[in-house]
């Protein structure tokens, strides 16, 4: 009876994955190029690297709730296409500054702010689009999307590792083309799905607050967002600042070594998602698995802080990526499954706010901590704090309790 609808959904989901793949390939270039331009080309200090990463992420803290409200009231395909076209502006700024040898810390800050502002509107819209084009099994859909996302990012990371051979200008131009292609594919993917544009009965401010109020009133969603925020603050913020500094100051290596660290992390994410897709299917107690992954991530950070040899560093980063991939899949799928469809973009924007809003603060603190006590000591310290937060969440939050017990009251 629903065969036609399901084949439409499968087709549009495939195009969605192609769009995510194109933008993730561009993101893979970005995650190497942006920090390495700061550390390896401009030779900036840990504090200034932290400030630049904060400039890239801070707009998401400021605008992502607004992005969720706007996403709930737009035809998503056309809206995302326009947003992806806007990415050309910061990419052109960076391209021209490299070509004309105008590259400076100020231009990197400008690039980060522009790129981050656009991303604040892209993220909730793309997440909402996932729930519209996927079938009913959201954990599987999220795992598949994550697999494509991090596989494509890995290819981008490897390409960026050949920065000296390919050249900065060509890589930045490729990033622009990929982002435009992604916008075109995401516009196409919704053509098979009926578009509903809702009438707005309330002000933008009230609609922004409604997502926060819904999360605040749901104890499980609120605790989930607190754990996600701790992940962004302790993990994501540290990763963005510590890894390029670790490459330069501890292992005394260049862009290729940094790219392989990034690849190891993403390959770990890919492995965890493949295992989930092939063997697990759906976790019966996702909250419990989320908190276990937090303990594992803290332990891995403490192991990295012991200055392992290069081969062991790559293995530890791979395992860190696997635990982080599991956490990201569970956080995203729990947010989708536990939020009402009518408010999903707004709740997803709260999730993005928790993850990426805490990250710039974490990047800033990580930069100052690294400058004060050294990169290895900072990684060990934040690893210990991650374990402590995980233990507190296990003892006091509802996420550790069985879902059926929780619903039974």
Q: Which value, in Å, is the CA radius of gyration?
A: 20 Å
How much beta, percentage-wise? under 5%
Give the H and E element order. HHHHHHHHHHHHHHHH
How many H/I helical runs? 16
Biggest sheet descriptor: none
The CATH homologous superfamily corresponds to MFS general substrate transporter like domains
The first-to-last residue Cα distance is 37 Å
Weakly predicted, low-confidence segments: 1-8, 405-409
Number of strands: 0
- CATH class designation: Mainly Alpha
Shape: globular
Report the structural category. Answer: mainly alpha
Number of domains as seen in the coordinates: 1
What does this structure look like?
The protein has 409 residues and is mainly alpha-helical. It has one domain: MFS general substrate transporter like domains (Growth Hormone, Chain: A), CATH 1.20.1250.20. Helix content is 84%, strand content 0%. It is built from 16 helices and no strands. The chain has helices at residues 3-41, 46-71, 76-86, 88-99, 105-133, 138-161, 163-166, 168-189, 204-217, 219-250, 255-280, 286-304, 310-338, 344-373, 375-396, 403-408. The radius of gyration is 20 Å and the shape is globular. It starts with a helix and ends with a helix.
Helix-strand blueprint:
Layout: H1 3-41, H2 46-71, H3 76-86, H4 88-99, H5 105-133, H6 138-161, H7 163-166, H8 168-189, H9 204-217, H10 219-250, H11 255-280, H12 286-304, H13 310-338, H14 344-373, H15 375-396, H16 403-408
Brief write-up:
The protein has 409 residues and is mainly alpha-helical. 84% of the residues lie in helices and 0% in strands.
């Amino acid at each position: 009876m629903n065969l036609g609808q399901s084949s439409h959904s499968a087709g549009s989901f495939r195009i969605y994955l192609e769009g995510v793949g194109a933008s993730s390939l561009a993101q893979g270039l970005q995650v190497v190029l942006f920090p390495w331009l700061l550390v390896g080309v401009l030779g900036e200090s840990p504090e200034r690297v932290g400030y630049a990463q904060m400039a890239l992420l801070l707009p998401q803290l400021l605008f992502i709730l607004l992005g969720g409200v706007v996403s709930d009231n737009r035809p998503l395909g056309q809206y995302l296409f326009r947003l992806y076209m806007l990415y050309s502006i910061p990419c052109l700024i960076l391209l021209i500054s490299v070509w004309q040898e105008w590259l400076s810390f100020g231009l990197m800050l400008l690039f980060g702010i522009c790129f981050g502002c656009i991303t604040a509107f892209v993220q909730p819209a793309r997440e909402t689009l996932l729930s519209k084009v996927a079938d009913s099994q959201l954990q599987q859909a999220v795992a598949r999307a994550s697999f494509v996302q991090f596989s494509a990012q890995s290819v981008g990371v490897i390409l960026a590792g050949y920065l000296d051979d390919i050249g900065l200008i060509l890589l930045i131009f490729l990033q622009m083309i990929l982002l435009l292609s992604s916008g075109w594919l995401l516009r196409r993917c919704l053509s098979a799905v009926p578009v509903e544009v809702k009438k707005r009965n309330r002000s933008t401010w009230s609609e922004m607050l409604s997502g926060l109020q819904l999360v605040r009133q749901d104890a499980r969603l609120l605790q989930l967002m607190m754990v996600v925020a701790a992940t962004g603050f302790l993990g994501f913020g540290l990763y963005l600042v510590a890894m390029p500094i670790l490459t330069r100051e501890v292992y005394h290596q260049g862009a290729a070594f940094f790219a392989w660290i990034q690849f190891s992390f993403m390959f770990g994410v890919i492995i965890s998602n493949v295992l989930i897709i092939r063997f697990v299917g759906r976790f019966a107690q996702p909250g419990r698995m989320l908190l276990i992954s937090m303990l594992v991530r803290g332990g891995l950070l403490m192991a990295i802080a012991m200055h392992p040899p290069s081969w062991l560093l790559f293995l530890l980063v791979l395992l860190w990526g696997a635990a982080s991939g599991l956490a990201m899949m569970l956080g995203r799928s729990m947010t989708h499954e536990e939020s009402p469809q009518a408010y999903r973009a707004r709740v997803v924007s709260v999730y993005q706010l928790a993850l990426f809003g805490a990250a710039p603060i974490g990047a800033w603190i990580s930069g100052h901590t690294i400058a004060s006590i050294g990169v290895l000591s900072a990684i060990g310290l934040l690893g210990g704090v991650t374990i402590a937060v995980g233990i507190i969440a296990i003892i006091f939050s509802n996420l550790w309790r069985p879902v059926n017990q929780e619903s039974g009251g």
